[in-house]
Design brief:
By secondary structure, this protein is an alpha/beta fold. The chain has one domain: Rossmann fold. 30% of the residues lie in helices and 29% in strands. The chain is built from five helices and seven strands. Strands 3-2-1-4-5-7-6 form a seven-stranded mixed sheet, with helices on one face. α3 links the parallel β2 and β3. The longest helix has 14 residues. 35% of the residues are buried.
Length: 161
């Protein structure tokens, strides 16, 4: 699992302060789950469902083991590529989508346009990158910050489009 880069604790704390401490009833998608830090945190804060998508087999096995140990009934795991998952038209909308793709992958500008229709009304997308990122006009930045080499922001679909 040498490619994993978990979201730093300080960044995760800020994110969940932004989202609110209680995610009861919310449906979340952790699209590039990696270690699962964001998805497990959402589940622990009462999310009704958390879908974690991870294609690295070793990381996926670790997610399975952690779900088993924690007896997480509100987490669904998918072993597949996050971009491929986002491209498929599946039913369901998410209140919060976590996007923390590998920094050098170039996935963020490819996957973000695919998520506009997967987001519930008033839903939010969390995006974490290794360099400053400006979303296109479909998105407005609700909040943004930087911690060391990590840039992160909370995005919402522009309602007027």
């Amino acid at each position: 699992m040498s490619g994993l880069r978990p979201t730093p604790d300080r960044v995760r704390e800020t994110l969940f302060n932004w989202l609110g401490q209680d995610l009861s009833g919310r449906c979340c998608l952790d699209l590039f789950a990696g270690s699962g830090a964001l998805g497990f945190e959402a589940a622990s804060r009462g999310a009704s469902e958390v879908v974690m998508v991870e294609n690295n087999r070793a990381a996926f096995r670790a997610l399975q083991e952690n779900c088993r140990k924690l007896a997480c009934s509100n987490i669904m795991l998918r072993c597949e590529d996050g971009l491929g998952f986002a491209r498929r038209q599946e039913s369901g909308r998410y209140d919060v989508i976590f996007l923390d793709p590998p920094f050098q992958s170039g996935y963020l500008p490819k996957v973000l346009p695919l998520l506009a229709d997967r987001l519930a009304e008033d839903g939010l997308v969390y995006a974490e990158t290794g360099e400053a990122f400006e979303p296109d006009a479909v998105w407005e930045v609700v909040k943004r910050a930087r911690a060391g080499k990590v840039y992160f922001q909370l995005l919402q679909k522009v309602q007027d489009l």
